[in-house]
Amino acid sequence: MKKVSFIGSGNVATHLALGLQEAGMDICEIFSSTPKNALKLASKVGAKAVSSITDLDVQGVDVIIISIKDDLIHSVSNAIGVSSTLIVHTSGTKSMDELSKHENRGVFYPLQTFSIESELKLSNIPFCVEASNLEELEILKEMASLLSADVRITNEETRKSIHVAAVVACNFSNHMFALAEQLLLETGEDLSILKPLIEETVSKALDNHPKEVQTGPAVREDQEVLKNHLHRLKGNPDFQKLYQDISNSIIKLKNE
Amino acid sequence: MKKVSFIGSGNVATHLALGLQEAGMDICEIFSSTPKNALKLASKVGAKAVSSITDLDVQGVDVIIISIKDDLIHSVSNAIGVSSTLIVHTSGTKSMDELSKHENRGVFYPLQTFSIESELKLSNIPFCVEASNLEELEILKEMASLLSADVRITNEETRKSIHVAAVVACNFSNHMFALAEQLLLETGEDLSILKPLIEETVSKALDNHPKEVQTGPAVREDQEVLKNHLHRLKGNPDFQKLYQDISNSIIKLKNE
């Protein structure tokens, strides 16, 4: 297993292609609906940019990685010629069956948020792999282990639950930081004042069970502080409501 | 300014007393409603444990730091004999006026979450200081700067807003981690699978404005994924409702 081509040239495709090339694989062809981006990635990894999916040399590679917007996976998969080559997508939410046209198919889902600018160490990123048969699963495990020490065999149900958990833990906590920043800006402060506190909170949560290290007025059921905080948010009824709902959820989880 | 005594022997009192002693201050006396804890802290910092507030040598020190539960600050302050000694509390939410019995009073609020077991570098923790007059403010700035490079002069309004922001950014994001862990445990996974993603999310949020680096289905208004996630949470209607509310809040903030 040596040769891989990519459909897509966004953040995930770029990081994977660079990582796999560094690990010794040949990156053969890149197709993207934005030819400029395909060329850019192709030049980074010594691949050939192709301008149409039907031009891809499907049989000439071991794996084709489709790394594009979720909604397009099915139609793009259907545009690839039939072969016995392993076709995978990198989505956290889409079923492997989106690729059902292809006998050998799988999922190769890196559990991380990628930015095209930022350098990212792939080596500790969990890779969730699924495949239509054991032989192909071995190929994906091997390919993932070229990139990371954390390779996990999942199934569709598990992967979708992990994806919800990731949204809650990451997208939602980022929103909490955004709401906090909004409050701070109103008082002339900025988020930097919370940096040590946020870092310590995360470190404590990851070293323990977050439920067990929950602090703050809600888990203490400190009604006076909760009342004061709600009063302080009275100018923003939606935020006030959210503060109340999350506080209630903290109390509820504590009592479970 | 050399001598300080503590009322309280919990996490905050312990970290401050150790830090101030290391910085060269004399920790003179410790009072706690739990004499055993007062003795423990006193022995760590070479201080004397006293068994009654009225036994404190108020005039023999430059500052008395009250570091106890918010609700007790007022009555404890009233139990201290009148003097010109500077009396401060360490609360994020209580007014300096809780100490109004004392002519020279202030607030000495370290913006961090303390655990008694864990060693913590105080040097980058923001200290919010307030005082009843400029001379006492100088004393608190000087004392804080012995501990940390980040000393901020606040007022009651600012400090209370910072406290709400800290609850939102830290206590609420910890709850998001707890909810995510609950979901993962149901599928046989654990929170470790999200560690790289959480760390990258926080690092990105702190290096930018979190609003500007928000990712996920809500900010993309990806109705299909949102619908699937809500469906997946149908066994837990409260969590489902919270997922919807936070997603709505993300969309709302984006459009502001």
Q: How many beta-strand elements of chain A?
A: 8
Compute the average pLDDT of chain A: 95
Number of domains of chain A: 2
Largest protein interface?
A: A-B, 87 and 87 residues
Helix content of chain A: 40-55%
What overall form of chain A do the CA principal axes indicate?
Answer: elongated
Q: Secondary-structure element sequence of chain A?
A: EHEHEEHEEEHEHHHH
> What is the CATH first-level class name of the largest domain in chain A?
Alpha Beta
- The radius of gyration over CA of chain A amounts to 23 Å
Low-confidence stretches of chain A: none
- CATH arch. level architecture of the largest domain in chain A: 3-Layer(aba) Sandwich
Give the N-terminus to C-terminus distance of chain A in angstroms. Answer: 49 Å
Helical stretch count of chain A?
A: 8
What's the oligomerization state? homodimer
Name the CATH superfamily classification of the largest domain in chain A: NAD(P)-binding Rossmann-like Domain
Per the CATH scheme, the topology name of the largest domain in chain A is Rossmann fold
Within the largest sheet of chain A, what's the order of strands? 3-2-1-4-5-6-7-8
**Sheet with most strands of chain A:** 8 strands, mixed
Structural class of chain A: alpha/beta
Fraction of residues in β-strands of chain A: 5-15%
Describe the model:
Two copies of one chain form a homodimer. With 256 residues, chain A is an alpha/beta fold. Chain A folds into two domains: 3-154, Rossmann fold, CATH 3.40.50; 159-254, ProC-like, C-terminal domain (N-(1-d-carboxylethyl)-l-norvaline Dehydrogenase, domain 2, Orthogonal Bundle). In chain A, 45% of the residues lie in helices and 14% in strands. Chain A has helices at residues 11-22, 35-45, 73-79, 134-147, 156-186, 195-207, 223-232, 237-254; strands at 3-7, 26-31, 48-50, 63-66, 86-89, 105-110, 127-131, 151-153. Chain A has an eight-stranded mixed sheet, with helices on both faces. In chain A, helix 2 (35-45) links the parallel strand 2 and strand 3 (48-50). The longest helix of chain A has 31 residues, at 156-186. Chain A is elongated. The N and C termini of chain A lie far apart (49 Å). The interface between A and B is large, with 87 and 87 residues.
